[in-house]
Specification:
The chain is of the alpha+beta class. The chain is built from four helices and four strands; from the N terminus they run H-E-E-H-H-E-E-H. The termini are far apart.
Length: about 180
């Protein structure tokens, strides 16, 4: 296995990120659990943003409810895959690495809920242009932002590869003239 190219400063940063996301996720869930009744909603910005407390026994949008063991297995496999891909990244792939760290942090935050309670505590509720988005939590936000950063890194790398290939083909055309 290749030696990972990562500084002690980066290890500290990534470790602190994981800890802060997990603690932030669990703390906000405890606060909501202690201040709202299940199903209760509190307007933060009326008509747009609410804290609505629900228990999600499934995945996103409540899909696959009742498959708790499946979620444990998928979460463990995903965690191993995330760690594996993190070790395969290069030092310059900062968005990719940070994205993987955020995804892992969110995965662990929601896994804690599933292990302890058998469901995930969700409470962030947006209604935008009449569409009531699925209710989510801090762990979910970390996962979505992490995936966004990974997509951004892949897009940047693809653009750079395209730019190099275009430059290279332009140079070849100039040489042949």
């Amino acid at each position: 296995m290749k030696k990972i190219d990562i500084s002690k400063k980066s290890i500290l940063f990534y470790t602190l990120t994981v800890i802060l996301v997990i603690i932030g996720d669990q703390w906000t869930k405890v606060v909501v659990d202690q201040t709202l009744r299940l199903g209760e909603s509190h307007a933060i910005v009326d008509g747009l943003f609410y804290f609505t407390y629900i228990h999600n026994k499934g995945a996103a949008w409540g899909m696959f409810q009742g498959y708790l063991n499946f979620f444990f297995i998928v979460s463990l496999i995903a965690a191993v895959g995330i760690i594996y891909f993190f070790y395969k990244t290069e030092a310059y792939q900062k968005f990719y690495r940070f994205g993987l760290v955020l995804v892992l942090s969110g995965l662990v935050g929601n896994l804690i809920d599933r292990v302890v309670f058998g469901y995930v505590r969700d409470f962030i509720d947006f209604i935008i242009v009449g569409y009531d988005f699925p209710i989510f939590n801090i762990a979910d936000m970390a996962i979505v932002i992490g995936v966004g950063l990974i997509i951004l890194e892949v897009g940047i790398e693809e653009y750079q590869t395209w730019k190099i290939s275009k430059s290279s083909s332009t140079n070849q055309q100039l040489d042949s003239e």
